[in-house]
Amino acid sequence: MYLLMMLTAAIVSYAATWGARLVGNKLELYSPIRSRDMHSRPISRLGGLGIFAGVLVALVTASTSFFVKDIFRNNTAPWGILAGATVIVLVGVADDLLDLRWWVKLIGQSAAALVVAIWGVRMTIIPFIPEPFVIQNEAVSIVLTAGLIVTTMNAFNFIDGLDGLAAGVAIIGGAAFFLTAYWVHRTAVLLDRSDLATLLTAIVVGSCVGFLPHNWFPSKIFMGDSGAMLIGLLMASAGVVSTGQISSGLYDRANGIPTIIPILLPFAVLFLPLLDLCLAVVRRTALGRSPWSADRGHLHHKLLDIGYSHRSAVVLMYLWTCILAFGGLAFAIFPWHIVLAVDLAAAAIMAVVTAWPYLRQRGPGQIAGTPE
């Protein structure tokens, strides 16, 4: 049933994105081309509406479908998440068309995150070793949840700089997250194996799969802030749901690291976006600029600067996401010391591959012919 909802989201997202392309091009709803942009012709940024259509239709369909409809029984969380998603899509579309000031967009992000935290899902447990820390205060829980969602939305928004990058990262990371959540619930002794986190990640993956053909290089439409922030909100919400299941014993394994698996995987999936976000904040703050001011210093820009082509840079980011996401997934299945060794070896190989164009430029022959 999860795969059926994924397929539903993909079909609707593909068709709706096609419609958004036609509307955006016919009405010439383009944003001005900025110095940091990688395209040279006007392209519509309404792709987030297509992704949202896939999410909306799949979630409503799931509420009346066999097996997964149990998720909605006496549970307002899915509708709270959908309400927050609606708010952030409206904020994103406004920003894509009007280029909102950074503080106005931050207020909109906070509003959407608070909607999710109040009426959707919220953090109740912070994973620690050996015992998780239980959040007793409701206000603290709401603030922490909203903060996590806003951070994740901005992280995804920051990596949306190359054709197909954000959508592909969401597909790869969401697939790893989906497999983990699904495997945990299928192997657990439960009467009801339906799970909101599994459903959300399935829908996110499906919607991005439907969108990606329109966004692959050379892109015909961008997801814009509406799409990137929507993906971040849904991924963060799924992470909050899985984190709340720590005390249930679902993630207990003798050969794994049980207490941190629910929080490890979302951060492994989002490691590249979060790393890019942190580096951008430090870089811009050090220059005396606002952390939300735009520049051309993101990770994908650096890959282009050292010699990678547009497609090669995107594929390289995909490979890093695979290592981090599925490397995190492996901790829930295989002995941790074996997984750690394999992950470190894969990361070391990828580090050399990533830096190879730069190392080749700085090789002995290059340096010998360069004046001091």
Automatic annotation (TrEMBL):
CDD domains: GT_WecA_like. PROSITE patterns: MRAY_2. It is a multi-pass membrane protein. Its main location: membrane. Keywords: Cell membrane, Membrane, Transferase, Transmembrane, Transmembrane helix. The chain crosses the membrane at residues 43-68, 77-94, 106-128, 140-159, 165-184, 196-216, 228-251, 263-282, 313-333, 340-359. It is found in: Cell membrane. It comes from the Bacteria. Pfam families: Glycos_transf_4. PANTHER family: PHOSPHO-N-ACETYLMURAMOYL-PENTAPEPTIDE-TRANSFERASE, UNDECAPRENYL-PHOSPHATE ALPHA-N-ACETYLGLUCOSAMINYL 1-PHOSPHATE TRANSFERASE. This is MraY family glycosyltransferase. It comes from Arthrobacter humicola.
